[in-house]
Amino acid sequence: MKTIKDSVHDHIQVVGVANELLDTHAVQRLRHITQLGTARLVYPSANHTRFEHSLGVYHLACEALENLGIEGRQAERVRAAALLHDVGHSPFSHTIEELIHRRTGKYHDDVLDLLTDSTVGDILRDHDLDPTTIAGLIAGEGELGQLISGELDVDRMDYLVRDAHHTGVPYGTIDHERLTHELTFADGRLVLAEGNVQTAESLLVARALMNPTVYNHHVTRISKSMLQRASERLLDSPDIDAEQLRRMDDHDLIVALRMNPETAELARRLTDRDLYKRAVWAEMGDVPDEIIDADHETIRRYENEIAESAGVDSEHVTLDVPSRPAMTESSSRVVVNNEVRPLARQSTLVRALQQVQRDQWRLGVYTPADETAAAGHAAERILGLETDGALVSDVRTGVRTTLTDFEEK
What we know:
disordered C terminus; Hypothetical protein af1432; 11 strands; four-stranded mixed sheet; alpha+beta; 50% helix
């Protein structure tokens, strides 16, 4: 057994198979992958890692299992899955996950290959645990997989509290102890017991507040887009493939970007925080549906057209189109008057927060500071933004932004 001091959960006791898995390369690698990717360029103290988070998820899984009365082999499987749930992450966490998926077909929770032929697999088999079963739990399969990946999973409970703690913002605070104590199963679905509508709503509120201030802060999004573009260029070189990139850590990727002439300048900008600026920052209602739903190749074509029209280098224009707002937590289930109900049906707050998500959505076009005005005008025309005079240039920054969005730049 190991006892580890954690900044969020105080002392965490790691026992059984998890204790042996702790010092494997797959788990220790997570010490070198930041939990929030480029958000540390906004919040200097947000340097926490996937390793810390994995310990937190393990701890909350142990609490949930105890309160659910699940013991023995079943509990050991879940504990192993909790500790291993992030071993498939590529550098900078989710930042380049879509790029990796386009090249390999794998997301971060597709970990069967990583668990089977490795020291991790040997340890699991030594404890009579099937790596395929553990990989399934990590992907959210089966009744107990919902604890690791689902609407009420312990992964979400830990990262909201941990991210708020390390960024210093107060918005991600939730009562994770109550959440783990009130979990139960009904007809094979993980639900919150009677009297916990507000407990479920707290997850929604925390996420809704963390999105604009941390996860989708405009500087986070700009730096994320720059890192995505640099990583894509790196994969266009013959020296590295997507599988190699997938297994790097943050430091490996930055070094690789610095060493490649095609990506060295973006690496310098990210290292020095010499970031692109917003040329456009447009609300969802101002953006045509075909732009919002455009695929990767179409977005790249739009970038080239904007650059050509603006008379700037095509490598200096990044079009950032988020996916349509979604609220996974709204499908979580709660017991009300002895009936299991979806939270979206029971809570009027869900509908309000769904509108909030839509209001928070922004399309971004980013360029070096001295090219924002030209790129902004070109993007407005080429993307067919429905401005009706609502998009104006900030005289201080040149940003084409909605009149309702003059937050601190």
